[in-house]
Write the structure tokens for this entry.
Amino acid sequence: MNKKKTIISAIVLLAIVAVGGAIAYFTDTDTKTNTFTVGNVDITLSEDHWVTTDNDSDGVPDAAENIVPDQEIAKDPVITNDSATAPAYVYAKVAIPCTTDATPEEIFTLNTIGSGWNLMTDGVCTSGVATKVYNYGTSSAMTSLAAGSATPAVFTSVSLNSTITGNETGLDGNKNVVVTGYGVQTTGLTATTPSGIWTEVSFS
């Protein structure tokens, strides 16, 4: 009789151990938080020597009115990398108005191209405009513009083309020389040449 009770008690104890094993687990967890800051490309195009005085209020600076061949007008576009940390590759596109003759020519000449600037694309007169693209660097490689720094002026002044006689068509009205600055990050690019980077980024 005692032997039988002992066997039953053992069976009950085994059952309790089995239940306990079903609900007990060894567990662990770990988390890593990685902190990043996002860089940016932030450029400014400025022309410190372009005189904006317009005493007759006609929308054209006095210094740029009624100019004659070879008269130089100060216009000195500079690109500044305003990013706090990120370097940049920079370009400048210059749109120059053209005459509308059978053989059109550029109305203005860009004087004294700045050190470090390379004429990447020398466009011809098309639909009244010749477009030139300069890259900051050489014909084969870009120069990185450090954060907080500025380029030399792309050019220092413009003048009326010395070949203009006044008999050409398309000289009437206001004429705009439009300069556009471009900046792009220096890393993560597939292309390595100035023209290749320009195409890859799809600047226009």
User: Anything to note?
Assistant: The first helix runs from residue 2 to 23.
